[in-house]
């Protein structure tokens, strides 16, 4: 698709070269300010028009008559000269050769010269060496084709003209000058315009002279290629950078033209490409229809902040560029402050949560028992802090009778809790079941101590157990605290030595409720010191001490 554009460039370049000739070095005139050579391809039998273009510097001299024009080989039949133009009315192969026109100065020396080489052809109606290319795209409009020529002197008048396509097809007048509103690939071809001229003067009355011109029309399939364009950055953009840090600015362009070139300039001088040993360079990558050129500044310094960086896109259809600058990033105090404050809050919240979770028990005990900040209600109608109930664990392990007695003693004597114990506080002769139930109802907690060994018949009575559990769990009147023994794992896995307490003689449905109680694990001699975790845990689950309550005082007095 891009071939035509390239061809245009190539052709115009060659034309330029042909016109300029090989400069004065090869010129036969020593003092020429201008020397040109050109080739003229003329079809046999047609007019040849040689027009000397007087160099600008000599025009006034020429008009003043200080320099004169001289043609060589101008005389002869069928040759016509008027000033700067020589016309050979009907070219024959004999006319091939060189013709020159010189400007002769006052000294009699040529000051400017142009040499024309006439080449005659006859095999076709045009020669490939002298066609004027035009291009258009399928479905798009095509400009009209040019038939007339500027070089023909006014002494000749054009009668009419006819277009031929590829020499053999004569096109009718509807073709006019070949404008197309929507081109088709079939419209491609070499179009030759044949013009007929007559000479104004009576000298050659009635004679008609021909001159042709050929235009090659190429209709490209597909649509007009995109005009190359820089998509980003935008002109005048600035990029915020940190001093000393690397920066990459990517310039993106839409390019379909293989002759387009995308590059970076710093203050109007070129930035090196792909040389990553330099402090500033650019590299580029191409994808279908797109190109990126990345400006890489390895370490931003003051110099870079003062520079203009320009991304430039050069293509045969034009030049576009965008300029950017770098700016030093300013510290953003506001967001940092906000983040800081939020961060401090989050950290504080996390720390407080962790501390609370870790020290919850100590904190509650301190507040409740040492500072007396509790909601203990001595008028709740209860007279015991806890009812202690033993039950046989079916795992075989349990708190020994001796340890249980220790626990009861410490709770009562060290911590001043009032406990209801079956073998002490349930009077013999009472109806066991009712007495147990009544005692549990009068207690603020039900402590269930798992026991490995057999128990006294009354303590272990299934009835008292079930009614106690019922009262504690189903009616939810009395919170349940489970005291279980540490399970010694022989397999060596010390990870989970708290086995779920399974109780004999408790229906499956109530086992679940038992498991929902607060569990405290007795770790034998480890739990004996009053500072151990066992006592803290147990006290935590117990109600607030009733030291100042009337019952407590009474009990203390009674003990004395
Ligand atoms: C042309 O020549 C005349 C003398 O012959 C001179 O006065 C005049 O300045 C010249 N003109 C130029 C443009 O040199
Ligand atoms: C024009 O004249 C030169 C000599 O002055 C000669 O060499 C050349 O061949 C001639 N050209 C033609 C076309 O006759
Ligand atoms: C060409 O025409 C111009 C006027 O149009 C006239 O002055 C001139 O003499 C003519 N040249 C020849 C060679 O007939
Ligand atoms: C153009 O004019 C010439 C000469 O008068 C004549 O022979 C030719 O037929 C004309 N062509 C058209 C298309 O009128
Ligand atoms: C014009 O003619 C040349 C050969 O003379 C040919 O190569 C070229 O394809 C023709 N152009 C078109 C558009 O047909
Ligand atoms: C890169 O730039 C350095 C410094 O100007 C130069 O010495 C070196 O030859 C360059 N390398 C290439 C591959 O152009
Ligand atoms: C250009 O250079 C930079 C920095 O060295 C690198 O990150 C990037 O990948 C390079 N891009 C291309 C297309 O080579
Ligand atoms: C660009 O010009 C500015 C000011 O003229 C100068 O400070 C800076 O160093 C120049 N940058 C480059 C890369 O030459
Ligand atoms: C950068 O370009 C802008 C606008 O094109 C111009 O005003 C400014 O002076 C330029 N700066 C430098 C350092 O060249």
TrEMBL record:
<protein>
    <recommendedName>
        <fullName>Interleukin-1 receptor accessory protein-like 1</fullName>
    </recommendedName>
</protein>
<feature type="signal peptide">
    <location>
        <begin position="1"/>
        <end position="19"/>
    </location>
</feature>
<feature type="domain" description="Ig-like">
    <location>
        <begin position="138"/>
        <end position="204"/>
    </location>
</feature>
<keyword id="KW-1133">Transmembrane helix</keyword>
<feature type="domain" description="TIR">
    <location>
        <begin position="382"/>
        <end position="542"/>
    </location>
</feature>
<keyword id="KW-0520">NAD</keyword>
<dbReference type="InterPro" id="IPR013783">
    <property type="entry name" value="Ig-like_fold"/>
</dbReference>
<comment type="similarity">
    <text>Belongs to the interleukin-1 receptor family.</text>
</comment>
<dbReference type="InterPro" id="IPR036179">
    <property type="entry name" value="Ig-like_dom_sf"/>
</dbReference>
<dbReference type="GO" id="GO:0016787">
    <property type="term" value="F:hydrolase activity"/>
</dbReference>
<keyword id="KW-0393">Immunoglobulin domain</keyword>
<dbReference type="InterPro" id="IPR015621">
    <property type="entry name" value="IL-1_rcpt_fam"/>
</dbReference>
<dbReference type="InterPro" id="IPR007110">
    <property type="entry name" value="Ig-like_dom"/>
</dbReference>
<dbReference type="Pfam" id="PF01582">
    <property type="entry name" value="TIR"/>
</dbReference>
<dbReference type="InterPro" id="IPR003599">
    <property type="entry name" value="Ig_sub"/>
</dbReference>
<feature type="domain" description="Ig-like">
    <location>
        <begin position="28"/>
        <end position="112"/>
    </location>
</feature>
<keyword id="KW-0812">Transmembrane</keyword>
<keyword id="KW-0472">Membrane</keyword>
<dbReference type="InterPro" id="IPR035897">
    <property type="entry name" value="Toll_tir_struct_dom_sf"/>
</dbReference>
<keyword id="KW-1015">Disulfide bond</keyword>
<feature type="domain" description="Ig-like">
    <location>
        <begin position="228"/>
        <end position="325"/>
    </location>
</feature>
<dbReference type="GO" id="GO:0007165">
    <property type="term" value="P:signal transduction"/>
</dbReference>
<feature type="transmembrane region" description="Helical">
    <location>
        <begin position="336"/>
        <end position="359"/>
    </location>
</feature>
<keyword id="KW-0732">Signal</keyword>
<keyword id="KW-0325">Glycoprotein</keyword>
<dbReference type="InterPro" id="IPR000157">
    <property type="entry name" value="TIR_dom"/>
</dbReference>
<keyword id="KW-0378">Hydrolase</keyword>
């Amino acid at each position: 698709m891009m071939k035509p554009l390239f061809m245009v460039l190539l052709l115009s370049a060659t034309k330029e070269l042909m016109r300029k000739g090989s400069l004065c070095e090869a010129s036969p005139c020593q003092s020429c300010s201008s020397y040109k050579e050109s080739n003229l391809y003329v079809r046999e039998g047609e007019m040849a028009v040689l027009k000397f273009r007087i160099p600008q510097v000599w025009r006034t001299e020429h008009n003043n008559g200080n320099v004169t024009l001289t043609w060589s080989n101008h005389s002869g039949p069928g040759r016509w000269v008027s000033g700067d133009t020589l016309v050979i009315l009907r070219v024959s192969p004999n006319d091939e050769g060189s013709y020159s026109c010189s400007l002769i100065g006052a000294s009699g020396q040529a000051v400017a010269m142009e040499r024309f080489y006439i080449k005659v052809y006859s095999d076709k109606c045009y020669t490939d060496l002298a066609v004027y290319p035009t291009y258009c795209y399928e479905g798009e409009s095509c400009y009209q084709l040019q038939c007339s020529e500027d070089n023909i002197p006014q002494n000749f008048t054009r009668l009419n003209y006819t277009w031929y396509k590829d020499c053999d097809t004569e096109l009718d007048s509807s073709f006019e000058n070949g404008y197309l509103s929507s081109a088709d690939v079939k419209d491609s071809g070499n179009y030759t315009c044949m013009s007929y001229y007559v000479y104004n003067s009576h000298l050659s009355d009635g004679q008609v002279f021909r001159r042709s011109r050929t235009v090659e029309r190429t209709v490209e399939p597909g649509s007009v290629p995109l005009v190359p364009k820089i998509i980003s950055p935008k002109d005048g953009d600035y990029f915020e950078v940190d001093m000393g840090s690397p920066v990459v600015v990517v310039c993106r362009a839409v390019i379909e033209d293989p002759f387009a070139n995308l590059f970076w300039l710093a203050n109007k001088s070129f930035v090196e490409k792909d040389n990553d040993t330099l402090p500033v360079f650019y590299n580029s990558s191409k994808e279908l229809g797109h190109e990126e050129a990345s400006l890489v500044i390895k370490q931003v310094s003051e110099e870079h902040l003062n520079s203009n960086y320009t991304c430039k896109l050069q293509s045969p259809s034009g030049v576009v560029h965008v300029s950017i600058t770098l700016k030093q990033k300013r510290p953003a105090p506001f967001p940092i402050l906000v983040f800081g404050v939020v961060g401090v809050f989050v950290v504080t919240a996390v720390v407080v949560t962790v501390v609370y979770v870790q020290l919850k028990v100590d904190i509650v005990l301190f507040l409740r028992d040492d500072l007396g900040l509790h909601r203990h209600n001595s008028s709740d109608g209860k007279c015991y802090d806890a009812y202690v109930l033993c039950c046989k664990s079916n795992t075989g392990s349990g708190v020994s009778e001796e340890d249980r007695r220790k626990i009861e003693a410490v709770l009562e004597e060290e911590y001043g809790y009032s406990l209801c114990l079956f073998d002490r506080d349930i009077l013999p002769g009472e109806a066991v079941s009712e007495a147990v139930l009544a005692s549990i109802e009068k207690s603020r907690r039900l402590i269930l101590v798992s026991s490995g060994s057999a128990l006294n018949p009354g303590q272990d009575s299934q009835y008292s157990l079930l009614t106690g559990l019922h009262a504690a769990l189903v009616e939810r009147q009395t919170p349940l605290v489970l005291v279980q023994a540490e399970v010694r794992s022989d397999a060596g896995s010390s990870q989970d030595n708290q086995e779920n307490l399974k109780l004999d003689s408790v229906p499956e449905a109530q086992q679940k409720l038992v498991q929902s109680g607060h569990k405290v694990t007795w770790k034998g001699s480890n739990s004996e010191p009053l500072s151990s975790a066992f006592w803290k845990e147990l006290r935590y689950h117990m109600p607030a001490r009733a030291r100042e309550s009337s019952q407590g005082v009474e009990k203390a007095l009674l003990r004395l």
